[in-house]
Amino acid sequence: MAYRNLEITNRGAVNVITVNRPDKLNALNRETLNELGMAFTQAAYDDAVRVVVLAGAGEKAFVAGADIAEMHGYTATQAQAFSRVGQQLMTSIERLGKPVIARVQGFALGGGMELAMACHFRVASEKAKFGQPEINLGLIPGFGGTQRLLRLAGRGAALELCLTGTPITAQRAFELGIVNRVVAPDALDTTVDALADQLAVAAPLAAAGIMDAVLSGGETALDQGLEFETQAFALAFSTEDMREGTTAFMEKRKAVFRGR
Ligand code: COA
Predict the structure, then answer these.
(1) Residue 253 DSSP one-character state
(2) Does the structure show a pLDDT above 90 at 1?
(3) Which residues contact 132 (CB under 8 A, 6 or more apart)?
(4) Cα dist. 5→28, 30, 38, 254 in Å?
(5) Which SUPFAM superfamilies match (predicted)?
(6) Which of 20, 23, 24, 117 best tests ligand 1's pocket when mutated (most atoms within 8 Å of CB)?
(7) In the chain, what are the domains?
(8) Which atom of ligand 1 is least distant from the CA of 109?
């Protein structure tokens, strides 16, 4: 599949999706949103893909937001559709069923921060900047930012970032629990690759169960979340991978998981 705004590569079981509009700091226009939707669907269907790394081309930006030039002329109805399409993309990433790592080397602003927050991991360079600057445009976040930031970092951080619009450093984002790892710029790729490699050999059905339980549990009461966990736990016992994992432990060898 040929994309105009994405570059897709594979490294073993790791599928790397790179937003490739560096002259516009990888801003998300409608076409890019559509292409991301297709690329993630492809990754979901491809059994050979165990992990996705999402990146932005160039040195400067992961993604500097939704495309402001495109949004400028929108009517409220068009904005509603744009927000819904963006939100659906973010939710489809979050619910992909395979771990997704955001590789953030520069600006992750607005829709870029929302995109990073929809991923399951955020690995950032010390040079990265995170922010929800929509208020400076007379807007509010429209791709889930108010909701995912609230859930990731709490009400205080969500209100501060969205109301001030001031970007924060990767280190501050780490302190707030938004970013998982902050590393020197020249260590970014090795850190992302090592995490991706670790996830690529993990039991895929167990990983899917964990993501489902954590994501669903965040939206329910504790007893419902616990029941969900019990059902996912029981389901794991129907998999070949569970037999392989426990057998390998007893045989003192490394398990090989096949996602069955
Ligand atoms: N939408 C559309 N185009 C964008 C963009 C966005 N979100 N962010 C950057 N660009 C474009 C710029 O218009 C510029 O294009 P041009 O060369 O054709 O004029 C190009 O990317 C480079 O950006 P520029 O602003 O010149 O880089 P900079 O280093 O001076 O500033 C930023 C970098 C990130 C501080 C600045 O680009 C910015 O504030 N971007 C918007 C961030 C934002 O508000 N995001 C939320 C959107 S809802």
Answers:
(1) S
(2) no
(3) 109, 110, 113, 114, 141, 145, 149, 161, 162, 165
(4) 9, 11, 12, 40
(5) ClpP/crotonase
(6) 24
(7) 6-200 (3.90.226.10), 204-250 (1.10.12)
(8) 45
The two three-digit tokens of residue 195, written as one number: 């995490």
d(CA 176, CA 253): 39
DSSP calls for 39-93: HHHHHHH-TT--EEEEEESSSSEEE--B-HHHHHT--HHHHHHHHHHHHHHHHHH
Does the beta carbon of 25 sit less than 6 angstroms from any atom of ligand 1?
A: yes
Q: Which two tokens stand for residue 185?
A: 């710029």
- Active-site residue list: 114, 134
107-109 vs 61-63, strand pairing mode: parallel
pTM of the model: 0.97
Ligand 1 atom closest to the Cα of residue 24 is 21
Q: What is the pLDDT of residues 147-186, one digit of tens each?
A: 999 999 999 999 999 999 999 999 999 999 999 999 999 9
User: pLDDT digits over 190-219, tens only?
Assistant: 999 999 999 999 999 999 999 999 999 999
Q: Which residue has the tokens 């260590």?
A: 187
Residue bearing tokens 């965040």:
218
Torsion angle (degrees, nearest 10) of CA 221, 223, 226, 230? -130
Distance between start and end Cα atoms, the chain: 27
